[in-house]
Structure formats: C-alpha cells, structure tokens
Write a structure and sequence with these properties.
The two termini are 26 Å apart. This protein folds into three domains: 1-82 and 166-192, Periplasmic binding protein-like II (D-Maltodextrin-Binding Protein, domain 2, 3-Layer(aba) Sandwich); 86-158, 3-Layer(aba) Sandwich (D-Maltodextrin-Binding Protein, domain 2); 197-263, 2-Layer Sandwich (Alpha-Beta Plaits). Strands 1, 2, 3, 4, 5, 11, 14, 15, 16, 17 and 18 form an eleven-stranded mixed β-sheet that branches. A five-stranded mixed β-sheet has the order 8-7-9-6-10. It is built from nine helices and 18 strands. A hairpin with a 5-residue loop joins strand 16 (228-229) and strand 17. It has 263 residues and is α+β, with helices and mostly antiparallel strands.
Amino acid sequence: MNIITLGPDGSYSSLASKQVQRENPDMDIVYSNSIPEIFAQRKGSDLAIIPIENNYGWPVHDTMYAIYQQRWCVQILGWISLRIEHCLAGIPGSSIESIEDIYSHPQALRQCEKNIAALGAMPNNVSSTTAHIPHMKEWEAVICSEDAAIANGLSILDKDFAPENNITKFAIFGSNEVDYSGNKLNGEKFPKKQTIAILSVGDAPGALARALTAVAHAGLSLHFIESIANKTGGYDFPILIENPEGLDIKDIVKDFDFGVQVI
C-alpha cells in the first residue's frame, strides 16, 4: 500500500503524508507532480493525501476538479491540519526592496496576497515553484517553505511571509471497496467518515434543492458544495458530506425522476 501525494520531498504535502507514514510504517510515499496525476497513479488500496482547503486561500479547486474529472465517488478516511509557514526567497544578492515579481502556486499567492500588495509586487501563478527557481532574475522572488529555499540555494528575504494561523487541511482519500480498519491516524483506526460525490442535475427548477433535501433526510451533513457547468446544459455539483456509515449516495437519490444522478 502506497501513499500518493504531491512532491517533491519536503513539500507541505509530503510533511502531511509523513505524519500518516509514522503510524503506518509499512506504507511507502510516492510523489506526483500534480493533483490529477495523483488520481491517475492511485491504484487499489493506495491512499491519496491531497490539500482540500486553506483558511486564507479557500478551497483547493484543483482537488475538486480532479475528482470531478475522474468521476470518482471517494471516501475520506481522515484529515491532517498543517500550519503553513511560507517565506519569501530570492536569488543570492537580491533584496526585498528590489522585488517586482513574486512567483508561486495560486494557493500560496492567495494566502499571502496582503503581504504581496504591501510590497507593491506583481503576483505570478506557476504550477511548480521549484521548477521556476532556476529561471529567477534578481527582481523576482518566490513564496516557499524555508526548507525549500535553503535546499535550492536561495536567500530568505522574509522568514514569516504568510499570515498568522495559516492552516491547510489535507484529506486522506481511500477506496470505497477497501477495509482500512487496520491502519491508524492519531492513534485511532481509520474510520469511513466522509464522502465526496458528484450530483449531476438537469436544468429543472428545484432539482438540486430536492436532492440535497434527500441527503439531509438520510442524516448526512453537507460540508462543501461547488458548481460546475456540464456539457449537457445542466450542472454538476461535487459535494462533501459526513457519511459515517458509508452509505451509497446513489441509493439516497435513486427515486428522483427529475434529472438528478450521482456520477
């Protein structure tokens, strides 16, 4: 059994994954380059540990969209909350006063947007901060962890560039068909706590409201919902719900005849 997560070693995702590995030493960590690649690599009983939301950067849309693309109804076995401590780093010899452009992943840029604005610098999205580092100029900086800055030979311009209490929640995803009761998190067995499913709703008045009412009547609490327009003119809604009994969401909405499906 492997843990599939975002690399490289030393990334925040790897730190979250190592917390699980410490309690489950038989698991190996395998690094991927992107969230969609994690879902493509995950096989059988493998776990996927992926960032879901940040209290400053809002939901990680790459995660929800990857689940949507995979059409995968997944179980969340647990959560890891990790304090994110970003620094601002530049090439050796640069100064914070000279920085005009700041590069990082969109989530990190959102988390640090007030500090970026205070510098009067321009935020620039990159899919991989590490990949951008070899191309940096003296007027550029990146937002990264202190360990990543040191490992890549950068100078730290501001050690505490992230806001206080910057917390990212990582979800531990597993397969619906696998019993993980022999594995542990924080000294307890993995439960089947939550489910992410996708409700596909036709263009019918009240369809989504009635489908969510059915979810509520089943005793399942809704934690998150996102809207994505689909190719048929309707809408798909990834939802995150409390589901301690591992109920099949398809069974809950199967009696509707107005275009609601679980995909």
